[in-house]
Amino acid sequence: MYHQYRPGYVEVISGCMFAGKTEELIRRIKVLEFAKKKVLVFKPAIDNRYSETKVVSHAGSEVDSIVIREAKEILNYVDDTIDVVAIDEVQFFDEDIIEICDYYAKKGKRVMAAGLDMDFKGEPFGVMPILITKAEFVTKLTAVCTICGAPATRTQRLVNGKPASFDDPIILVGASESYEARCRHCHQIKNKPSHLGLDYD
């Protein structure tokens, strides 16, 4: 089938931790740079796990990035010479990121955003549900469940080696020391409430 796209659209790369979201974002960035497209890459200041200034995947791939604290800071950097706006860990940004992605897509830029679609509770994470709904293209990646080997779609938070509680804070930046990839069946949340009175344990 033949597809013709006008310049300007949003694509989202989503999934759980260790699914390769950042790796895929970096791959797309490098392909575009080989094609001589001018790309600006942004990351939230909160994500300093592997580098203060670069976007780095768990596998070690990296690209230079602009570190920002609020989504609207992107407006200070993108001008008419930029072809592509790439954003990693987009779930950490405030709701302004939604309008910014819409705006630049409307202006004819390719907007690529990678982030966790669910938090450690298995609930939609921040702005991700809206971004996924508004995007022209969505890629949902899976990892491998560390317990049973099935496709993993959830992020398991561990506290002293045990599953975290539903009441714990949403944001805790970490890597393999705090998180594992799990499938639906092996994902555990202590004290998960149910308005229907269902028992999840």
TrEMBL record:
<feature type="active site" description="Proton acceptor">
    <location>
        <position position="89"/>
    </location>
</feature>
<keyword id="KW-0237">DNA synthesis</keyword>
<keyword id="KW-0067">ATP-binding</keyword>
<keyword id="KW-0862">Zinc</keyword>
<comment type="subunit">
    <text>Homotetramer.</text>
</comment>
<dbReference type="GO" id="GO:0004797">
    <property type="term" value="F:thymidine kinase activity"/>
</dbReference>
<feature type="binding site">
    <location>
        <position position="179"/>
    </location>
    <ligand>
        <name>substrate</name>
    </ligand>
</feature>
<keyword id="KW-0418">Kinase</keyword>
<comment type="similarity">
    <text>Belongs to the thymidine kinase family.</text>
</comment>
<feature type="binding site">
    <location>
        <begin position="171"/>
        <end position="174"/>
    </location>
    <ligand>
        <name>substrate</name>
    </ligand>
</feature>
<protein>
    <recommendedName>
        <fullName>Thymidine kinase</fullName>
        <ecNumber>2.7.1.21</ecNumber>
    </recommendedName>
</protein>
<dbReference type="GO" id="GO:0071897">
    <property type="term" value="P:DNA biosynthetic process"/>
</dbReference>
<dbReference type="InterPro" id="IPR027417">
    <property type="entry name" value="P-loop_NTPase"/>
</dbReference>
<dbReference type="Pfam" id="PF00265">
    <property type="entry name" value="TK"/>
</dbReference>
<dbReference type="GO" id="GO:0008270">
    <property type="term" value="F:zinc ion binding"/>
</dbReference>
<keyword id="KW-0547">Nucleotide-binding</keyword>
<feature type="binding site">
    <location>
        <position position="148"/>
    </location>
    <ligand>
        <name>Zn(2+)</name>
    </ligand>
</feature>
<dbReference type="GO" id="GO:0046104">
    <property type="term" value="P:thymidine metabolic process"/>
</dbReference>
<dbReference type="InterPro" id="IPR020633">
    <property type="entry name" value="Thymidine_kinase_CS"/>
</dbReference>
<feature type="binding site">
    <location>
        <position position="145"/>
    </location>
    <ligand>
        <name>Zn(2+)</name>
    </ligand>
</feature>
<dbReference type="GO" id="GO:0005524">
    <property type="term" value="F:ATP binding"/>
</dbReference>
<feature type="binding site">
    <location>
        <begin position="88"/>
        <end position="91"/>
    </location>
    <ligand>
        <name>ATP</name>
    </ligand>
</feature>
<dbReference type="GO" id="GO:0005829">
    <property type="term" value="C:cytosol"/>
</dbReference>
<keyword id="KW-0808">Transferase</keyword>
<feature type="binding site">
    <location>
        <begin position="15"/>
        <end position="22"/>
    </location>
    <ligand>
        <name>ATP</name>
    </ligand>
</feature>
<keyword id="KW-0479">Metal-binding</keyword>
<dbReference type="InterPro" id="IPR001267">
    <property type="entry name" value="Thymidine_kinase"/>
</dbReference>
<keyword id="KW-0963">Cytoplasm</keyword>
<feature type="binding site">
    <location>
        <position position="183"/>
    </location>
    <ligand>
        <name>Zn(2+)</name>
    </ligand>
</feature>
<feature type="binding site">
    <location>
        <position position="186"/>
    </location>
    <ligand>
        <name>Zn(2+)</name>
    </ligand>
</feature>
